[in-house]
């Protein structure tokens, strides 16, 4: 189906054509018409299928149809996302598709100066794209008003629940007008997501483009079994022998991301790391250098599994399998986007065989296994159990009571293991905790 058949305005169709698009993806075909009709929707589709345009285009048209002449811009649409990278990506889509419409938009997330954001909000904006933690801080400071909000979008809702944002989301929803249109988009739907949808969606139209928890068919998945101690050697060999110019590599922890990045640099491969401990400026620079080819290897934790939209990314490598099987789907969804082909490789040691089995159960298929001569695993090596959960290893004590970032899947503890709920720390835990979660 062509975009011109979906009922979009001339201004939006012009912006779509500027991007070289003529045909809408399946999620866009099914989501755009009911949103234009003013209905609530609960939509699920594989990552990389065009979900962002699926809600951005009709959102812009709905705002245009209800725009009051000569009125000062006020927040009429709120888009909540789990990570800074996804916030930036959605903000870019709003800017791109709304280039011929008179709307102002701004993006709000942690890790950067709040004063700049306050200045933007004071000028008046129509659309806000935000992470929950930093938005809630603005609400409590009184620097943003949401009493005129007509549309609410939850993008990657399952990821927000995984990151512990459910309480913040409910607080934000309670600040919105009861009469509004609600859109919930997610790559996967859990029972918790369905429960949340029942709390604020009004007779939503349910849209499911692909089976739950499936990977895109355009992604070729391969497993290479190798000893843990030889993973880095094999990775460097594959990058060099295959002349890979752009490869996204996932690790489970920030420590391993930094360590692997250093090792790859020693192997002569230009690499950089991106994770929750990096400042937003460092994360933005790393991603930009990776996109423009200055950096050959981007090593990331699962904070980057969603929100990274890298055009024609050919290779994704699971240097370490994720503890949560669903995260595997989000990781490999960074390649094979928009119908293009991609390759997802997993380096699996004996410790990770149970994790691999969990992923294959989720996919309902066995991933192809390829042996590389000279890198066969040693059968005498015994498996060492991998700690499950979001915080697989204890936090070492740090100075100044530093908080771990929930954006990297960590728990809410101060240094030394003290919980933020400890009465002795009630005065300081709240704001620090919200800033940490805004990653």
| CATH homologous superfamily grouping of the largest domain | P-loop containing nucleotide triphosphate hydrolases
CATH class of the largest domain: Alpha Beta
Number of helices: 15
Based on CA inertia axes, which overall geometry fits?
globular
Average pLDDT, all residues: 83
Strand content: 5-15%
Low-confidence stretches: 389-439
Sheet bearing the most strands, described? Answer: 7 strands, parallel
> Which architecture of the largest domain per CATH?
3-Layer(aba) Sandwich
Question: How many beta-strand segments?
Answer: 14
Rounded to an integer in angstroms, the radius of gyration calculated over CA atoms is 22 Å
- Helix fraction? 25-40%
Enter the CATH topology name of the largest domain.
Rossmann fold
- Secondary structure class reads alpha/beta
Total number of domains: 3
Describe the secondary-structure layout.
Layout lengths: L9 H9 L7 H11 L4 E4 L6 H15 L11 E4 L3 H14 L7 E4 L5 H10 L3 E4 L1 H10 L9 E5 L1 H6 L3 H9 L6 E6 L4 H10 L4 E4 L10 E7 L5 H11 L5 E4 L3 H13 L4 E4 L5 H12 L5 E4 L14 E4 L6 H8 L9 E7 L4 H11 L4 E2 L56 H12 L2
Parallel strand pairs: 1-6, 1-7, 2-4, 2-5, 3-4, 5-6, 8-13, 8-14, 9-11, 9-12, 10-11, 12-13
Brief characterization of the structure:
With 439 residues, the chain is α/β, with parallel strands linked by helices. It is built from 15 helices and 14 strands.
């Amino acid at each position: 189906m062509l975009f011109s058949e979906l009922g979009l305005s001339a201004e939006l169709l012009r912006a779509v054509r500027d991007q070289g698009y003529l045909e809408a993806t399946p999620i866009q075909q099914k989501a755009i018409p009911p949103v234009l009709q003013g209905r609530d929707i609960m939509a699920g589709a594989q990552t990389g299928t065009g979900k962002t345009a699926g809600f951005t285009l009709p959102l812009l048209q709905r705002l245009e149809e209800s725009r009051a002449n000569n009125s000062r811009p006020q927040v009429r649409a709120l888009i909540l996302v789990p990570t800074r990278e996804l916030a930036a990506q959605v903000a870019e889509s709003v800017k791109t598709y709304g280039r011929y419409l008179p709307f102002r938009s701004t993006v709000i997330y942690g890790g950067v100066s709040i004063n700049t954001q306050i200045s933007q909000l004071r000028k008046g904006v129509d659309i806000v794209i935000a992470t929950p933690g930093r938005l809630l801080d603005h609400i409590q400071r009184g620097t943003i008003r949401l009493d005129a909000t007509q549309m609410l979008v939850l993008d990657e809702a399952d990821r927000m629940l995984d990151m512990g944002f459910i309480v913040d989301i409910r607080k934000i929803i309670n600040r919105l007008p009861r009469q509004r249109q609600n859109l919930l988009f997610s790559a996967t739907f859990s029972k918790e997501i369905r429960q949340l949808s029942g709390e604020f969606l009004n007779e939503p139209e349910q849209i499911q483009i692909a089976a739950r928890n499936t990977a895109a068919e355009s992604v070729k998945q391969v497993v290479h079994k190798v000893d843990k101690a030889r993973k880095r050697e094999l990775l460097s060999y594959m990058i060099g022998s295959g002349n890979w110019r752009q490869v996204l590599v996932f690790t489970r922890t920030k420590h391993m991301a930094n360590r692997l990045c250093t090792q790859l640099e020693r192997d002569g491969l230009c690499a950089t790391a991106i994770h929750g401990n990096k400042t937003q400026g460092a994360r933005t620079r790393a991603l930009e250098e990776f996109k423009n080819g200055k950096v050959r290897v981007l090593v990331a934790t699962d904070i980057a599994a969603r929100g990274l939209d890298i055009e024609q990314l050919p290779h994704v490598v699971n240097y370490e399998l994720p503890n949560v099987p669903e995260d595997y789907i989000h990781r490999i969804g960074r390649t094979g986007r928009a119908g293009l082909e991609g390759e997802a490789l997993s380096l699996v040691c004996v410790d990770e065989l149970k994790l691999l089995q969990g992923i294959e159960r989720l996919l309902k298929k066995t991933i192809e296994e390829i042996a590389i001569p000279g890198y066969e695993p040693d059968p005498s090596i015994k498996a060492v159990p991998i700690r499950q959960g979001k915080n697989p290893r204890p936090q070492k004590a740090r100075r100044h009571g530093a908080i771990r970032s929930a954006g990297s899947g960590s728990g809410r503890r101060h240094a030394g293991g003290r919980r933020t709920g400890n009465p002795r720390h009630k005065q300081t835990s709240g704001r620090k905790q919200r800033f940490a979660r805004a990653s």
